[in-house]
Design the sequence.
């Protein structure tokens, strides 16, 4: 393991009134890793992503990207430093074409490409996400599977160091889930670190190097997929009983 | 479409520039008014149409430009040389309003701009160096309609050209992303506040330039005229009637609204009821075609194309 993690959080907390949605969570993500985050509904996973990328202001703790503090910085600035997330509920720019949507990421993300090189990035990203044929289509006309891929494509076009994927497999059919897993592996192989929230336990276990489990805002387990899914505390949190989870 | 648009634009611009050679003074006056309306509508559209930030305080920028021109001219500066400081002052003022204003979202920004516009009018009426509510007059001997006409037409052409360049640039795409989903744009690295401030400043400067040219041609300005809330309203009305966020829309809207203003409102019966006409126009556009005349035209073209091939098919059969 390299000396310095790409992304690290210490004591990260988020309070909404009387609810502690994220309760003093610590974790490190190494460069090139796929880091899965699972947990029951309402465990604080999406809130955690919001705090990491600056869409939400953390109530406490710190976040470091390449050793530098990024907590408290604006969302657009964190995106430009290389930490970008996708949204669980897709939010394309509906009046733009697929190509224009992706070009926003290429123009204003970490690498801030201009002119010709932005066009090249857009073309490559559309190719990798299988959206080339849909490039001139208005985003409003896409299917849910295509919208999920557009959400990833826009984020990828920012040339991120780390990509936070929030349930990109939600609502996909089994065939599409296989495609999404292959896409995540190809993103990792291209050198981008991946954090992913996923309800689909088999899929997340299949692509993650390590998994962290959240329950009621707290971390209850962390480690290699198989080990974590056999952890009694995790089984308890998911099922409230001792029935084992079948891992792929 | 864009190539046809460029050709039409060049033809219209050339005709407007050459108009003094063949049109009478009355017609040129109407064209001067139209050019002013085109500038106001197209400049407002940069922020209101492209970035979706609806401001009802644009009379402030027109007034700042007009007052800068008159007050500096009275101190011996050449009237046309006063245009640049007026534009810079308005751009600076737009940033001062925008820094707190753009923290507000949706209708709250719009409401705040109404307050700003009114505050500027009251301030200009109360302080002494502006001449108070009585207004101020340009120094004698500075009037040349031919020059004033060309000045306004050139600024109108430049404003439309700037709008077109912005719309097709990465900056314009960022503004469109901000209008559609500001959080989504931010999450992809778009600094929404900076881009809104930039659009606001560019449009404020253009409106202030128009304000200066207005003062040079009218020779007399007063807070009740250049800082009028009804002026801010008609600035907003034009791009909405024509088609928000497009290049042609504000021009069409300017044509319609300035025709109404110049022709209809000359009739004494209608002079006091123009707010009803504006209100009716606004309701009609929002109910029947929110994308304005541009949207209406597109629908008509689509309908004609759809009905076009049918007779041919009948001939073939």
Sequence:
């Amino acid at each position: 393991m390299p000396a310095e993690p790409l992304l690290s959080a210490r004591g990260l907390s988020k309070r909404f009134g009387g609810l502690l949605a994220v309760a003093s969570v610590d974790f490190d993500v190494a460069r090139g890793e796929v880091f899965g985050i699972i947990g029951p509904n309402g465990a604080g996973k999406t809130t955690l992503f919001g705090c990491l990328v600056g869409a939400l202001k953390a109530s406490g703790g710190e976040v470091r990207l390449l050793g530098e503090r990024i907590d408290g910085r604006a969302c657009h600035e964190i995106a430009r430093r290389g930490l970008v997330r996708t949204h669980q509920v897709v939010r394309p720019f509906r009046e733009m074409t697929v190509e224009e949507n992706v070009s926003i990421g290429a123009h204003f993300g970490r690498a801030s490409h201009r002119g010709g090189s932005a066009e090249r990035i857009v073309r490559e990203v559309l190719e990798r996400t299988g959206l080339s044929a849909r490039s001139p289509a208005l985003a409003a006309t896409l299917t849910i599977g295509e919208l999920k891929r557009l959400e990833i494509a826009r984020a990828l076009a920012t040339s991120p160091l780390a990509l936070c994927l929030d349930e990109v497999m939600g609502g996909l059919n089994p065939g599409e889930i296989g495609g999404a897993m292959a896409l995540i592996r190809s993103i990792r192989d291209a050198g981008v670190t991946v954090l992913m929230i996923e309800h689909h336990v088999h899929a997340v276990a299949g692509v993650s190097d390590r998994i962290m489990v959240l329950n009621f805002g707290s971390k209850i387990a962390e480690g290699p997929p198989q080990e974590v899914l056999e952890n009694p505390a995790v089984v308890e949190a998911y099922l409230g009983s001792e029935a084992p989870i079948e891992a792929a | 479409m864009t190539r046809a648009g460029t050709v039409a634009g060049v033809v219209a611009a050339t005709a407007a520039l050459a108009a003094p050679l063949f049109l009478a003074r009355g017609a040129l006056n109407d064209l001067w008014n139209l050019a002013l309306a085109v500038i106001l509508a197209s400049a407002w559209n940069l922020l209101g149409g492209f970035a979706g930030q609806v401001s009802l305080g644009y009379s402030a920028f027109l007034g700042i430009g007009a007052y800068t021109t008159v007050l500096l001219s009275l101190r011996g500066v050449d009237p046309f040389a006063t245009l640049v400081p007026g534009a810079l002052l308005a751009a600076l003022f737009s940033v001062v309003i925008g820094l707190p204003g753009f923290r507000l979202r949706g209708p709250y920004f719009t409401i705040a701009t109404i307050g700003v516009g009114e505050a500027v009018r009251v301030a200009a009426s109360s302080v002494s160096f502006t001449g108070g509510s009585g207004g101020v007059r340009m120094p004698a001997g500075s009037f040349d309609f031919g020059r004033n006409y060309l000045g306004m037409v050139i600024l109108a052409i430049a404003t439309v050209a700037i709008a077109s360049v912005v719309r097709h640039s990465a900056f314009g795409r960022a503004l469109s992303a901000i209008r559609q989903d500001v959080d989504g744009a931010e999450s992809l690295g778009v600094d929404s506040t900076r881009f809104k401030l930039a659009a606001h400043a560019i449009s404020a400067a253009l409106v202030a330039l128009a304000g200066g040219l207005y003062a040079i041609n009218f020779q007399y300005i007063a807070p009740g005229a250049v800082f009028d809330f009804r002026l801010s309203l008609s600035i907003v009305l034009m791009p909405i009637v024509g088609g928000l966020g497009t290049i042609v829309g504000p021009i069409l809207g300017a044509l319609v609204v300035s025709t109404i203003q110049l022709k209809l409102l000359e009739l004494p019966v209608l002079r006091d009821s123009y707010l009803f006409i504006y209100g009716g126009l606004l309701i009609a556009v929002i109910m029947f075609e929110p994308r304005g005349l541009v949207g209406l035209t597109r629908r008509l073209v689509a309908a004609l194309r759809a009905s076009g091939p049918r007779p041919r098919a009948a001939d073939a059969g």
Summary: Chain B has a mean pLDDT of 90. The longest helix of chain B spans residues 192-218. Chain B has 16 helices and two strands.
